[in-house]
């Protein structure tokens, strides 16, 4: 018997990506507070957050298979969250301008008796950005709900010179790796 699949996320991007798999699922947003532990590496932090999100939803739905995910943008060993305002978005984009950074997405798939968590890292390189480029992009309001203040799947694609890794991981869910992991939980497309 196939268990009910739940995506523990309110991210519209993760929903779109999970829809690519053409498997039935429901959405229950996790209400966990996203706090980073300064004693952990970025990879460990993003994995912990993904596990916490999945675990919180699983606690209320013990007969389900739950997917939790989290994405971080890191540069110079520092993780950039979602900007709180336009000034913080501009600061983040200036830091990323003309440089490479890492986008780390962790996925945790959990049932009452099993947990699989994995991380996927993609290197993204930005074009050098002028102050006008930055301000025009901020005007779109696209940076405001995204880690690192950009969305590669939208107008933020114009900022990106190249990527080395999984495009879908940068968007928020490494689709192929997630599907392979779901097969281990007897969920198939």
Features of the shown structure:
32% helix, ITPase-like_fam, 7 strands, UTP diphosphatase activity, nucleotide metabolism, Maf protein, cytoplasm, EC 3.6.1.9, 189 residues, 7-stranded mixed β-sheet
Give unreliable regions as ranges.
none
Largest sheet: 7 strands, mixed
Task: Calculate the terminal CA-CA distance, rounded to whole Å.
Answer: 15 Å
Content of β-strand:
25-35%
Q: What is the share of helical residues?
A: 25-40%
H/E element order: EHEHEEHEEHEHH
Count the beta strands.
7
Report the CATH topology name: Maf protein
Rg, alpha carbons: 17 Å
Described by the principal axes of the CA atoms, the overall outline is elongated
Chain-averaged pLDDT = 94
EC number: 3.6.1.9
Catalytic activity: dTTP + H2O = dTMP + diphosphate + H(+); UTP + H2O = UMP + diphosphate + H(+)
Subcellular location: Cytoplasm
Protein name: dTTP/UTP pyrophosphatase
Please specify the SSE layout and strand pairing.
Layout lengths: L3 E4 L4 H8 L6 E2 L14 H19 L3 E12 L2 E3 L5 H11 L3 E12 L2 E13 L4 H9 L20 E5 L2 H5 L3 H9 L6
Parallel strand pairs: 1-2, 1-3
Antiparallel strand pairs: 3-4, 3-5, 5-6, 6-7
What do these coordinates show?
This protein has a single domain (2-183), classed as Maf protein (Alpha-Beta Complex). 32% of the residues lie in helices and 27% in strands. Helix 3 crosses helix 4. The chain is of the alpha/beta class and 189 residues long. The chain has helices spanning 12-19, 42-60, 86-96, 131-139, 167-171, 175-183, and strands at residues 4-7, 26-27, 64-75, 78-80, 100-111, 114-126, 160-164. Strand 3 (64-75) and strand 4 form a beta hairpin. The protein is elongated, with a radius of gyration of 17 Å. The chain starts with a strand and ends in a 6-residue tail after the last helix.
